[in-house]
Design a protein that fits this description.
This protein has a domain of about 170 residues: NADP-dependent oxidoreductase domain (TIM Barrel, Alpha-Beta Barrel). The protein is built from 12 helices and 12 strands. The strands form 3 sheets. It has an 8-stranded parallel beta barrel, surrounded by 4 helices. The chain has a two-stranded antiparallel ribbon with strand order 1-2. A two-stranded antiparallel sheet has the order 6-7. Helix 4 packs parallel to helix 5. The radius of gyration is 19 Å and the shape is globular.
Length: about 300
């Protein structure tokens, strides 16, 4: 009898929440052309795979993604207690759905953070966020003001934990000096290895804070035919294909396993509306690469051997 692989769970910081290692990323939800009932089915299928954490942001889908999720949760209210909800704020898009915004800019003022959380809760039709992330570092961010907003939201029971997204190590430490942060959501893939070497994941390990990883398949670039890829992508894809053949899994599983193996214990976001893609991401949690296999991919990406 075949046993279905389910996503393991981990506590993402010493005082943080417990999330599934594979996170259901819904930033493309508005483009998936699903009916509300189809969204419910997708959520139930993800749940059956052990994927219990959902990643959102106020701006996703031109401010529509959270609303679409809320419609599904209204149809299946029992799912609210099954998932952990993550959202982000801090970017204001110029949009017909936000006519007061005259240009795209950052806003990490206390008033905007609080208003964004309240709107996200209304849109998703939930009572509390498990985690709120500041979406991008804001040159004008006042960390004392941000910490005041965090405390107010936490005391009101609207947000349990706080973190950041796309922050440098120094920016993370600056805000963390005022309020505890439980994660930094950053881009990492075999075509974008900077966080391995710029101190981002070093800081995560030092603080025992698990990073959340977006664009783990390089925005789908690693899934393209070889002829359509960059020179770097071709080198990586050739090694991925060799290892996939050796381990009898898909190349995307190998690419995700490479990230999951980092000792900072990353969580990986999916980006697909296909449940088969989510299942592949979950299966990657069960793959252990040898050091030689891991470094074969690193060397292919870097275009050189280790010194």
């Amino acid at each position: 009898m075949t046993t279905m692989t389910t996503s393991p769970r981990s506590q993402i910081s010493p005082n943080g929440p417990e999330f599934s290692r594979i996170v259901l990323g819904l930033w493309r939800l508005a483009s998936w052309d699903m009916t509300p009932q189809q969204r419910v089915t997708f959520l139930e299928q993800a749940l059956a795979l052990g994927v219990t954490t959902i990643d959102q942001a106020d701006i996703y889908g031109n401010y529509q993604s959270e609303i679409l999720l809320g419609e599904a949760l209204a149809l299946a209210p029992h799912l609210r207690e099954k998932f952990q909800f993550v959202s982000k704020c801090g970017i204001k898009l110029a949009s017909e759905n936000r006519p007061a915004h005259r240009m795209q800019h950052y806003d990490t003022s206390a008033a905007h953070i609080i208003a964004s959380v309240e709107e996200s809760l209304r849109a998703m039709q939930i009572e509390q966020l498990d985690l709120l992330l500041i979406h991008r570092p804001d040159p004008l961010m006042n960390v004392d003001e941000m910490a005041t907003a965090f405390r107010q939201l936490q005391e009101a029971g609207k947000v349990r934990h706080f973190g950041v997204s796309n922050f440098t190590s120094s920016q993370f430490e600056m805000l963390a000096s005022r309020f505890p942060l439980v994660t930094n959501q950053v881009e990492l893939s075999l075509l974008h290895m900077q966080p391995l070497h710029d101190g981002t994941l070093d800081l995560c390990q030092r603080l025992r804070v698990a990073p959340m990883i977006w664009s783990a398949l390089a925005g789908g670039q690693l899934l393209r035919p070889l002829a359509e890829q960059s020179e770097q992508g071709q080198r990586v894809s050739q090694v991925l294909a060799q290892l996939a053949d050796e381990l009898n899994v898909s190349t995307s599983v190998i690419a995700l396993a490479w990230i999951l193996q980092h000792p900072s214990q990353p969580l990986v976001l999916t980006g697909s509306g296909r449940i088969t893609a989510v299942a592949e991401a979950v299966s990657a949690t069960g793959i252990q690469l040898s050091r030689e296999q891991w470094f074969a991919l690193w060397c292919a990406s870097a275009g050189k051997n280790v010194d």
